[in-house]
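INFO  loader      accepted 1 record
INFO  loader      residues=145
INFO  predictor   begin
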Amino acid sequence: MKHVVAALIFRDGTVLICQRTRHQTMPLKWEFPGGKIEAGEQPRDALRRELEEELGIDARIEEEVMRIRHDYPNGTAVELRFFAVREYQGQLENRIFREIRWVERSELPAYDFLEADRKLVQDLAQGRISPVELSRPQGPEPGNT
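INFO  predictor   done
INFO  writer      dumping tokens
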């Protein structure tokens, strides 16, 4: 199984999405920036490295938002871990993608995302996951035990 990390980079109510090039596997699909965890690497360290390589930024990796295991029809299995990123240093630059875009969460389903990302895309678009909720402590509301 491949272990992959990806960033939900939020800015002014939008999220950054990236389109693969024609020469990558699953060409022209949209995804959230990130990549494979290398042997011996911690997930946050892997994501920080990937964001520097792909976008030229030094990101502050925050909480894990969602973890998804996806089995592709060709037999490839992937475990995706999505982390929130609200702050980074450096100028965002597109180093490897065909295109990068800031989009409203409600617009996400209009893009042709990788299969493994689609549940998260739906949850973000329908407001089940939002940057505001991500900043609240997890767990039951006081008095609702």
